[in-house]
Amino acid sequence: MKIAFTVVTISYLPRAFVLATGFLSFNTDYEFVVFLLDPVDERLEPFLHDQITYIPVAGIDEDVPKKLSATLSISEISFTLKPILSLHLIEKYPEAVSYFYFDADIAFYHDVAEAEIMLERHDFLLTPHFTHPVNDDKVPTELDILRTGLYNMGFAAFRNSTNAKRILGWWKERVLIFGVENHDLGLTADQMWMSLAPLFFENIGIIRNPGYNFAYWNVHERSLNYEAEKVFVNNKFPLVFVHFADFDPEKPDTFTNPKHFNRTDTSVNTALKRLCNTYADELLINRFEAYRNYRSCYSSSTRNRAWQQLIAAGNLRDHLKFASVFFFYLLPASLRKTLRRFSLFILRNVK
Predict the structure, then answer these.
(1) Which H or E run contains 145?
(2) Where are the beta strands (DSSP E) in the chain?
(3) d(CA 211, CA 241)
(4) pTM for the whole thing?
(5) Which of 158, 252, 262, 296 sees the fewest Cβ atoms within 10 Å?
(6) What are the DSSP E strand ranges found in 193-307?
(7) Bridge-based pairing state of the strands 2-8 and 230-233
(8) ∠68-74-79 over CA atoms, to 5°?
(9) Bridge partner list, 158
(10) Angle between helices 316-328 and 302-312 in degrees, nearest 10
């Protein structure tokens, strides 16, 4: 038995379905599990599939997402749940020979046979954001990646071993305490912790194959081309999966959010443009527009979370911290955006 899985809110079901069906088309001997942060209801019906199992997170432990929603955004909750749900899968399916986690905004173009072979001799697999230096002044920079973590946790693979469970247990402890995204403090929810994992634990494999986890953060070292309708990276490696982080299918000519990325233009990168347009079409066919505005039952605004934390604050430092966040979110959105851009400019340019 082999398991692949993701965790999503109701609004991300179209992405999860494209991920799962694409993965299963190249990896037919897997069961795909979609953990859902919302109740299972009639909105799930368009995405039913023989090899996809939907499991509501509340059915596992309702207290965990409720507790997390008081302090974390919905994306931070999803990040924090990764090690928790990974351990749950090992307990639920102990006979599985491999477990593969993917963020929902990933699309597949090849099988994961190479990773499976690596998993036979490693307990845990990671993919680095990139493996070659950045030698231009574009975004993201090497400093950006150092702030966010060496490995991209949109992917992880592991097996049922004592060592893998130790890694997941350590990861779980960290994200339950520091599961927030605050780049100024070097906190990127679940991700930055795994920079330490290869130092703390043995037998962690690093997938350096550039066909794995192609994304905006590594286009400086990876080029795409089509050969007989198959996609290759650097004219050599089959493209396994693309991580379409922050991709908007209604703007398919933009690979990701421009504030994170300005290294390439899809209009002059024909292979990438073709991938973006195909992925956009798949999302739109699978009801992306109808589902994108559904609000998760665990969603809460930053201002409301700050207010709850302000009420519960036990010392002056916390009172000041959460009061500043609360009042910041009383400002007009345009002013908040300007202040964020200014702070980002300072972080990147002041030596």
Answers:
(1) helix 142-148
(2) 2-8, 31-36, 52-56, 98-102, 106-108, 124-126, 155-158, 181-182, 187-188, 204-206, 224-227, 230-233, 237-238, 241-243
(3) 7
(4) 0.85
(5) 262
(6) 204-206, 224-227, 230-233, 237-238, 241-243
(7) unpaired
(8) 75
(9) 99, 124
(10) 160
